[in-house]
Amino acid sequence: MKGVKANHLSGGWLAAWISLISNFILTVIKIVFGTLFHSTALLADGVHNGGDVIASVVTLSSMKVANQPADEDHPYGHGKAEDIASGIISIILFIAGLYLIYEAIAALLNPEFKTNILAFSAAFVSLVWKTILYYYTMKVGKALNSKGLIATAYDHLADIWASLAAVAGIGIGWLGDQLSIPYAIYGDPVGGLIVSLLILKVAWEMGVQAFNVLMESNVSMEKSEEYRNIILSFPEVKRIDQLRAREHGNYILIDVRLSVPGELTIQEGHDITRKIRDTIKEKDKQVEEVLIHLNPWYEDDGR
């Protein structure tokens, strides 16, 4: 079991490092070519990738903290470190999106794009590279249930849209220059403006999800109903008085109050709680802890 966990963790570290190195290389390529050819879409996309470098560093740091065992100061573990990382990444994305909007509007008012096949090639390589990174990082993130890696994957997805807009904008500008099509030069800043709005959308959705976890919001209704059905499948359980379940980073904590026949002995009550806990954890591997409080129930007065 420890070997499997170690392999999963090493896979997560590998994915995070690949994202970091890739983002750094793409940042340099986009900024250099975007500056040389005055491509707003490519330059802004490069700045966005610079934010991705920071995001990747945050993800690596959060994974290291999140995988530390529980201690005296953090009895529930350090799982929320990755949710904090997701929140930070969403803020970085949001700021990058606002910057891209500013640059796109400025370029629309004063277009200076120099059409060149090299700028188009840089954007196209980035598109293909980021697509591969997205699917790879998302696959590893879901396998490990790593919020940091999943957030990084969504960051790659935002980059795919950014690179797609850059490819379209630069391609339209270059083709328009070759065919002498009026106003084709505006394709570059328009592409940058469109992708900026998409990036803001991704950042908002990611931030809301991360902050919901940090604010101790309940798990989805589907999961709550799943836990409820498992508990009620035990005939000794007469009523669920309260059921709360929350995400704590990459695992779930459940608190439940149950009414069972008051005639049961302490040993019988203990055995029931153990069976319920083991069944829930067996059916949902994401559940780390189930805290069960028993209340007495009597048939004659319904208490």
Kindly describe this structure:
The protein has 303 residues and is mainly alpha-helical. Strands 1-2-3 form a 3-stranded mixed β-sheet, with helices on one face. α2 (40-66) runs antiparallel to α5 (147-179) and α3 (81-109) runs parallel beside α5. It has 2 domains: 2-214, Alpha-lytic protease prodomain-like (Up-down Bundle); 221-297, Alpha-Beta Plaits (2-Layer Sandwich), CATH 3.30.70.1350. A hairpin with a 2-residue loop joins β1 (239-248) and β2 (251-261). 69% of the residues lie in helices and 11% in strands.
- Order of strands in the sheet with the most strands? 1-2-3
Number of helical regions: 8
Arithmetic mean pLDDT: 76
CATH structural architecture of the largest domain = Up-down Bundle
Secondary-structure blueprint of this entry?
Blueprint: H1 2-36, H2 40-66, H3 81-109, H4 117-144, H5 147-179, H6 187-214, H7 221-232, E1 239-248, E2 251-261, H8 266-283, E3 287-297
Parallel strand pairs: 2-3
Antiparallel strand pairs: 1-2
Helix pairs in contact: 1-2, 1-4, 2-3, 2-5, 2-6, 3-5, 3-6, 4-5, 5-6
Summarize the structure.
The chain is mainly α and 303 residues long. It has helices at residues 2-36, 40-66, 81-109, 117-144, 147-179, 187-214, 221-232, 266-283, and strands at residues 239-248, 251-261, 287-297.
Features:
mainly alpha, Alpha-lytic protease prodomain-like, Alpha-Beta Plaits, 2 domains, 11% strand, disordered N terminus
